Amino acid sequence: MPKVRVSPDGVLEISPEISEISALDFAPISTGSVKKVVIPFNINKIDIGAFYNFQNLEEVFISDGVIEIGQEAFKNCPKLKSVRLPVGLKKIPAHLFDGDVSLEKVDMGRGVEKIDSSAFSGCKSLKSFICPEGLRIIKDRAFYECENLTEIKLNDKLEQIEFRAFYETNIKDLSFPESLKKIDNQSHKFDSITSNYLTDISNAVAQNYVIHYKSGDLAFNDDEFAVVNGVDNTGAVWIDRQRGDLIVADAEGVVRVIERDQRLRLENKWNELDRLEIGYFPLILDWLKCRNIPHRSVVQAIPRAEIPYFHANNNPKNWAEISRIANMKTMEGKQDLANLAHALGVFSKDGKQSKTATDFIKMYILDNYNEEQFHAKFSGFDSVETPFNPEFAKFFMEYFPKNPDFMTVTDFEGETFDLLKNCYNNFAKIQELYPNKKVITRHDNERLTPEMVANALREYKYDSVTNETEFLANTISKFGYSQSDFDKLSDWFMQGKAIRPEDMVLKVQGDDENQPVTYELLDKSDPLGAVLGDITNCCQTVNNTAESCVRYGMTQPNSGFIVFKHGSDILGQAWVWYDEKAKQVTLDNIEVPRKVLEKISTNPKIEHEILDCLDRLGSGFDKAMNKKNHTLDRVTIGKGYNDFNKILSSKLSTIKRPVKLSNYQGYTDAEEQYLLENFSNEFTKTPKQNAPEQIM
């Protein structure tokens, strides 16, 4: 069969033997005879301009095998009416449907994150459009000259609308989501817009329009003043949605709050006010006797959800004290100071935290840095997008007094980097990477150190990384593994990947993901097994006491690693092995992060969920191993340094002389074992009673 051919009824047929389709593939056929295109699952890429200028094409169906579509792929198809895009597509490429004047319906997946430049430009028959759930960016002229487009529903994750995205459409009203960070000048001249916050909307949107607030309408026009921020001689107005207050910022950046009851009086008496010039608010403010809140730089440094907390305790007083001492002259300097103040908790609703942060900044920072030095050291904190994290504040205040350059590192090539900004912006992710580590602790092996944080932030470059070991390299680099560690682990990793699925001895079906606590046997191609010890703070890591467990679990068909999860969080892990001679599966130990243990101690329900999970795991091994024709008499759990001993000792019996793994001389925590499941009837599982001794 040729690559493509056209059926008598105009359907383009594509060979199942190819994986990409391009304009060159259509040279043997008459493109004018194509009315319908069905892209089969074997196609993973549609090349740039593949179906450009198909004059009679009316319908397109693209299967979910396609993961990439090039620019202008369906440009200038004047009769194209209906398109179904693959669900996994992340981006609608530039000019994809540019000039498709008959296009009425586009069915796309929820995961589209970006609509690129002029993607739907000139689609004159498009009347409505619903943004996919994951959409974040609408690029310039995306819907330019869609003259019959009257309705577009924006999603709640949209962050950016660029230049003339909706220009020359027929959209009259538009409701902006709270996620919107930027809308460029001349996006479109709407009759009205709806938003809770309008701090980043440029003047072309604001002039001459009625602004509808979700908690009460206010009418603003160019005879009174424009609602806008970031443009000279203008001010900003938005609603505090949690309290219903009206927040006003004037052209000088002074921000004030009009409380809800005052706001309602303002709306009722709006027509009684004298004419207001653009950006000039003193008449309103004096009339309502509003209370002050700080400079615009502060409001812009606080995540929106935290704005209502600013008046808690002595936060305004603490901020005023820092501002007076710092005496920043530029907006840039004020913003940097506000960002650091937020990061350390000056604006926290916890009064003690606010006072501690204020005193710290006065003592260790303001006397030691002028404005230029301050900007060089502390710029780049993305405060408005990063909620206050008390653990970062502890981390900073613990190490900064000892060494202000505590997050400055030198790479292997001798180049120096200050990772402080990245540390702040990514601290929550670092905590996820080290779930068992604490900033303040008496135990050294539980402490989150600057070295660990730097390892998580730096990009280690290893020699001899291949396509197969790239995932492993990226995983272990976050924990600061050396080149020699990588060489050793990559050798084990490749040994494990070389084991054919049919040769794997240890088997268990994955757990039901709807369960509160679940188990999973890691695949040999999953590099997580190499770093589980780092996550649970045990010795099961390369160059450590239990290195042999890592090697055996990564390289042997009768061994592996079980990961327990609570939701999406790793609850614990166990090295697991099957001994064919003894017909026994053993979870050599179960290691759990200390933070998880603390969580369990305050929530007894999790104990029962863990025991239920272990019961399912024991039964799961029995089913899977028998299916592989490997007899299984029992499933046991090592007692060694088992973090679940408190839970298991009251439920499971102990085997006095347990079976050991044959032909293995390395480290083990299974010198003593619990009996989880017994399938041989050799002895019965009885709570709090020892089982009969095993004959070795």
Q: How widely separated are the two ends?
A: 65 Å
User: The CATH topology of the domain at 483-678 is what?
Assistant: Aminopeptidase
Largest sheet: 7 strands, mixed
- Treating each run of at least 4 consecutive H or I residues as one helix, how many helices? 19
Cα-atom radius of gyration? 32 Å
Strand content: 15-25%
Low-confidence stretches: 195-243, 249-255, 266-294, 683-696
- The overall strand count is 33
Spatial order of strands in the largest sheet: 27-28-29-30-31-33-32
Helix content: 25-40%
Overall pLDDT score? 80
What's the CATH class of the domain at 483-678, please?
Alpha Beta
Shape: flat
Kindly summarize this structure in a few lines.
This protein is an alpha/beta fold and 696 residues long. Helices cover 26% and strands 18% of the residues.
Name its key features.
six-stranded mixed beta sheet; Aminopeptidase; disordered C terminus; alpha/beta; seven-stranded mixed beta sheet; 696 residues
Strand-helix topology:
Blueprint: E1 4-6, E2 11-14, E3 20-21, E4 36-39, E5 45-46, E6 59-62, E7 68-69, E8 82-84, E9 91-92, E10 105-107, E11 114-115, E12 128-130, E13 137-138, E14 151-153, E15 160-161, E16 173-175, E17 182-183, E18 192-194, H1 203-206, E19 210-213, E20 216-219, E21 236-240, E22 245-249, E23 254-258, H2 260-268, H3 282-288, E24 291-295, H4 296-299, H5 315-326, H6 331-344, H7 351-366, H8 371-378, H9 390-399, E25 408-410, E26 416-418, H10 420-425, H11 427-433, H12 450-457, H13 470-477, H14 483-497, E27 517-521, H15 532-536, H16 547-555, E28 559-566, E29 569-579, E30 584-587, H17 594-601, H18 604-627, E31 634-638, H19 645-648, E32 654-655, E33 673-678
Parallel strand pairs: 2-4, 3-5, 4-6, 5-7, 6-8, 8-10, 9-11, 11-13, 12-14, 13-15, 15-17, 16-18, 18-19, 30-31
Antiparallel strand pairs: 1-2, 19-20, 21-22, 22-23, 23-24, 25-26, 27-28, 28-29, 29-30, 31-33, 32-33
Helix pairs in contact: 5-7, 6-8
